[in-house]
Structure formats: C-alpha cells, structure tokens
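Protein in question kept underneath.
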Amino acid sequence: MWLQLQRQDPPVEEDALPLLLPEPEQDEGPHQSYAIQWFLFATVGAIGWPILLRRTAKEDERRRRRGPPPPDQDAGRPLEAAH
C-alpha cells in the first residue's frame, strides 16, 4: 500500500528542491537541570523515608502504651439506614 500526492496547495514550483534545515545546537540542553532535580528527589526520599518510618514507629509505640481504645457503646447495634 502506498499514497501518491495528486495536488498541493500552494502548488510546488518545478525547480524547487527541498531545503536543508539548519543543524541543531550541540549544547548540553536541560539534562544537567534534570539530573540535579532527580538527585534532589532521591535525597528527599532517602532522608524522608527513614524519618517517616521513625515517626510512624513512635506513634505506634504511643498507641501501644495507651492501651486499647474503650469499647464502642454502639457496638453490636445494627446500623440504621439513611433516610
């Protein structure tokens, strides 16, 4: 299967050739910025994850020391349907 151009608007000149595009710039681009950004994200994760784990462990320890919550007075009662 192939496609064949029948006409073009504006029409192509007979002696027109495809023009070469200028070469792209050979610079570093945004790569260094992205690398710094991802290293910062990794640092936040490497430092933040242990802090989060420690905080969660402290909260669990406090709950354990307080003992179980008091029993719910409504426990065992059927839930009423919303009107």
Notes: The radius of gyration is 34 Å. The CA atoms of residues 70 and 76 lie 15 Å apart. The chain has a mean pLDDT of 84.
